[in-house]
Design brief:
Elements: E1 2-11, H1 16-32, E2 36-52, E3 55-67, H2 69-81, E4 85-93, H3 107-112
Antiparallel strand pairs: 1-3, 1-4, 2-3
């Protein structure tokens, strides 16, 4: 089994229920293709570095997945056809960093100090 980090960017005008549906759709695809989801993170609405399909922001969803190459091919095939997604990226990793959440709201921690 290979380890992958997979990030998708949904359109900025997607509602919370649409984001939830997108997330559940790709979780189902992963499970149907004998993959295992180790962790899922919703990073929320963030600015894009440049315009993508006339969008300045995007909703980020990040998955940490155990699976094989056919799982990734199936995921990316479905993502190419999904009109709600702007971009996706899959990176093969050697091990997962499960403790660090890079996009959490750190302002609360700074204020407490």
């Amino acid at each position: 089994m290979n380890l992958y980090e997979h990030t998708i960017i949904a359109r900025q005008d997607s509602s919370a229920s649409q984001i939830k549906q997108i997330k559940e759709k790709y979780i189902d695809i992963i499970n149907k293709n004998k993959g295992n989801i180790v962790q899922t993170q919703e990073w929320g609405l963030m600015n894009l570095s440049y315009l993508i399909k006339k969008n300045r922001k995007g909703n980020y969803i990040h998955f940490k997945i155990e699976g094989d190459g056919s799982l990734i091919k199936e995921l990316e095939k479905n993502e190419k056809l999904d009109k709600n997604l702007l971009r996706y990226l899959t990176v093969k990793v050697k091990k997962f960093d499960l403790e660090t959440n890079y996009f959490s709201n750190d302002e609360k921690k700074i204020d407490e100090k």
